[in-house]
Each structure stands twice: as C-alpha cells, then as structure tokens.
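Readers of this paper often ask what the protein records in our data store actually look like. Nothing more is needed to write down the fold, since each code stands for a local backbone conformation. Below, we set out a record of this kind in full and without editing:
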Amino acid sequence: MTVTATFDHGIRSYSVPHAYALALASDLAYQDDATIDDRVHEWGFDRIRHHMTRFTPPFPLQDTEAYTAASDQMIITAFRGTEPSQIRDWLTDATTPPWAGPAGIGYVHYGFGEALESIWPDVKDTLARFRDNDQTVWFTGHSLGGALAMLAGARLQLEDPRLRADGVYTYGQPRACDRMLADAFDQGFGQRAFRFVNNNDIVPQLPPEPAYSHVKALRYFDSDGELHDSMPLLTGLADRAKGLTADALAPASDALRDHPIKRYLAALEKNLP
C-alpha cells in the first residue's frame, strides 16, 4: 500500500493520519540534508534548519542529528534515531551515572541527556526564531530519536513553558527517564503525547525497570497490526516473554524485526481511515 503524505498544518489534536505524517517526518530524519529539504518543501514547509553535533563520553563517537521545519501554521522538529545494535550498550549499561532532569526534576539516561544537551541550544534558538505566527510545535522521532523528542518536550514544558510543544509523537522509543520525571511529563502533556510500540519491539523494553520508566499515552500495534490505546495484558505478557527467551538483538529475532521505522509506517498505514 502506497500512501501519499499529507500534513494537516492546522491540526491540534490526536489522529492516526497525523501520527502517520509525523512517522514519515521521523523516517525522513535518517536521510541526507538535500533529501530532507526537498521533502519538507513538498509537505508545505518553507523554512528548515538542520541540527548536528558530536559528543563522545561515555560512548563511541556519535552524531546527534535533527531538523526543524516550519510553515506559517506548524513547526516540527524530528530527531534522528539509530539501529538497536548501535545503542544496546547505552540501554543495558547500568553503571553509567544518571543525568539531571529538566528543572531539576528526576533524572534521565546519561547517554540521552548528553545527546540532547549537545544539540538543544540550536534547536531551542531555532524554535524561538521560527515561531513568529503562534505556530503549533511538534517533536517526533524513532528509536533514539524518540527518546530525544520526549526529553525535548519535557525541557520546553518544564524550563520554558512559553515555547511548550503542542505534541510529542515517538516510535519505538526506549525508556529515557525515572518515574518522577515521567510523572511530571504526563501531568504537563496529558493527551498531547503518544508513544507508539510495535508488537515485540525490544527497544521500548530497555533500559530495564525500575531505574527507568516510560511516559504514558501508549499506542500499541498487536501482531496483526491492529492499533490499541493500551497494551492488552495477556498480549503484553506474551510479547515480553518472547523478548526475554530469545536473543533480543539477534538479526533474526522478532524483537529486532519489529523495530525499524518502516514497520511502524506499515502498521500505521493499515490503521488509516
């Protein structure tokens, strides 16, 4: 099924087509700058800025990349993700120290905190410059990019509510923070944040609880691709059991096959009106 992306620049609430459009924006974050420029102009955005920085400890040298695109009604910032095999050390290393949460509330995973910090000043400055018509602001991302999108939303909400995001949509996002910060995020965002999980995707199950927690507003795709507002208890237990009884990050595992952004796009396509 081939679906033409349509951005409703005036939207202010949840819908599956909007979730699909932001998933496409997350997918686009993996592309080169020229491809991103061409696509966002096709989507009706007339201004764009690319964000990239590098950081080292405590992981091998990494790039943090994102782009911000603006029209006269909407601004989106999409953070680039990475492959599970490249972030498994981040997600399972219990020895890395925590990073202080926004406004001193709770803590976040050190790798995610440092990655966002390395790029945040440019992202925030761009939002302030682009938001010249009271546009809505949306953060989105897949995998690592989803964690950064969630934390970016938390930073605006808790540190500068004048620039608060109108919505955060993530796909295959790992746990990024402790329960205290997750609760503060949930209280601030209500029904403006949505965390999509595709069936047995292993990345949302990491880093392990109880040190790290997820925010609420789950949207779950079952093994048939049907979208649910929550994870059914029996299905969730079965999926977790599968993830724990296999090599979760082996190339042939169901847990790994369910993670790519293309799987999320295909699942969303099945649920479009």
Observations:
- The domain at 16-270 is CATH 3.40.50.1820 (Rossmann fold).
- The two ends are 13 Å apart (CA to CA).
